[in-house]
User: Fold these one by one.
Assistant:
Number 1:
Amino acid sequence: MGKRIIYGLLLLLLLLPSIRAEEQRGEFHLKNGIKVIYRRIEPSQIGSLGLFIRGGSLNLNQELMGLEELTLKLMLKGSKKFPKERLEGELNRMGTRFSTDSRYDYSRLSMTFLERYFDRSLEIFSDCVMEPTFDLKELELLKGKLVAGLKRKYANPDDMVWYKANETLMKGHPYINYQEGTPETIGKFTREDLLQYKAKIINAGQVFLVYVGRVDKEDLQKKLNRSFGKIPQAVYNPPPLPPFTDGKTEIRIADDPGLPTAYIAGKFAAPPPSHPDFPALWVGMRLLSTNLDLSLRTKHALTYATWSFATNYKRPWGGVYISTSKPNEAIRLIYSEIEGMKKDPPPADELRNQITRYITLFYLRNETAESQVQNLGQAEISYGDWRYNYRWVEKLRKVTPEDVRRVMRKYFTYLKLGIYTDSQKMPIQRELFLSFGS
């Protein structure tokens, strides 16, 4: 009996950290209705706060591509109370960093800070959100920088091959409205465009906040109410985000004379992240990536770079990539590896090893406050619940070899392929490429 009590106490001591962690994360709402997701970490020297804006590509059309990213970047360049030089001086003195991130489903304004400077950092950050100056000189400089970056990307076939794949997968879908924009769209935006767009998207119905740091819930609620509680209330009713519907293999080829290697990227529609099949497909694509590297790179020496993956957007996709001077031989082997996974379940030990490696990587990527803010916000949007970030690992551990085979057969039935090649030196056998799924 005594031993049982001791063992019970030891077990309780082991569980206490996780119990405390559970008690130190949660959510509340500001006076204007803005949802706040928080995780308190004690002790902590560095904290992070993210303002997430729902919608992403749904907020845009072909004429507005790039406006959201441009608007958010310029917002953090200065405010009425903190013009650029004063802002930069204050941030450098405190070691605070502002950043933006624009994706298919959302955008994010973030600050990462030393905890002792949280109050001052929050004051500056919220002023940039509420009262940005949108300085004309800074606007033109930023537009030039973004356009130059896009032109560099357009000159790189390794980047552009993904856009070729998107021409078929995303045709008619909101995701084709790229957040980064084009040189043409970015070049025409005016200060008035940014002012109007900022007023449209920064509202209490469309944004939410994620905080990771050591400030307790009550204090955090007071401080955020004084700043972001001033954001105007609004009802956010986004249009529905449709699935990718056309399930047949297609190719788009760009002939680029002089290329020393061909670039091939393919995509297919995956189930939503909240779907029970998603964890198995996620693991399956990682297993396929290992198999592709072993077969095409190590065994057949056809490439230095090949992999497969799955995304976790609200409308996600799986994909494959390779760069090779022998595209027809390579695609034949890629198709063979895919069919092999659809035919036979992976060995149980390989599956466990793959899951274990990924879980280790997952925890390493969650070490910083900034990465935790990103992952909690991503889960809130993609899965509809920020708590999914803490359930993800257990869902992966439950995946079986038969689960992997089943989902690969169910979803990996076609590919939307983009190809960049020199058609004279590396001609594409269209019938071979189109044979997948037929």
Note: The chain has 16 helices and eleven strands.
Number 2:
Amino acid sequence: MKPIFTLLGLASLLASCTQPLHPELLSDHRHVPQQDVTVEIEKAVGAEGVTASIHFLTVGGFAIEVNGERILTPPFYSNPPLLRNLPFVSIHDNPDEVDKYFPNELKDRNATLDRRIKAIFVGHAHYDHLMDVPYLLEEYLKDATLFGSETAISIVSRKLGMSCSEFQSRGKIVEANTWHTVSDTLKAYAIPSSHAPHIAGHVFQGGTYDCSDTGRIRTAADWRKGQPYAYLFDFQAGGETVFRLYYQDTANDEDMGLIPKDILADRAVDVAIIVMAGSSNAKRHPAALIENVDASFYLVGHWEDFFGRSKDARFPNVSLGTDDLEFYHLLTKKLPDTQGGPRWVLPMPGDSVTVIAQ
């Protein structure tokens, strides 16, 4: 137990020293636009005429809409302080913060039936990805189905006072290396991934649950990581994929989170959402991922500090232990601009990126 307290003490000290995005990033308005942007992509075989709206909410949360099909990856608004990660200290969501920051246009009551969020996909079950999901499902997204690992489904079902079997109509356990049907116009492929170490080679809140576990989810340690997944989303029309999007919610080592070659041979990726947080601690991230995915365009998510709310919610500090300048220089090298414009952007929380496939 003593090493854990030591690591958390060190992490607390570092957290007090988190910094805003480096001035070099903030001055680069092509890649860090600090406003809603529209981009056109050219290397989108079969996607001509398709428009995708990608709204960055916060942390790993994105609202993605293609051809009227809406899905969500979990945002995180509760933001308990880092000291809530200490052993035996309870940690919980903050519904008032979710009410305040979750966009009104995404709530069921403000959307027509055909434009309601149909699915929520979570990559791993740490609390900064999953904590606000039970409240969102109960309060605002009553038509949405949650897709995730057995650990994630076990946690959310318990937070809702159910067993996995009672929750199965709204909670689907994904299978690795398998396509999952969301609707007639959307399917998702679950790719086994890994989680970058937090500090000193250690991943906090590790471990898994299965659906036979019934214990209370009370402390940060109870929000176990589970098996991480990345996802490949195929938006379809007339039985054909018209837009392909890759999503991850944690930095991973070079041999994880990769799209199988046979799937890539079938169709290229239009947009990829990649993670900056923890990138310095993962082997060849995101270089190996970029070499594999080779998307037409990239968005950088999960880059900001989530231990407490920043004084300026629009310009939060960088995630603990993340070298944003190193990440920036790697992206500018691996993804040089084209004549048509930049190949990647880092959005601010609340900003939207509209992608038009020519």
Note: The longest strand covers residues 229-237.
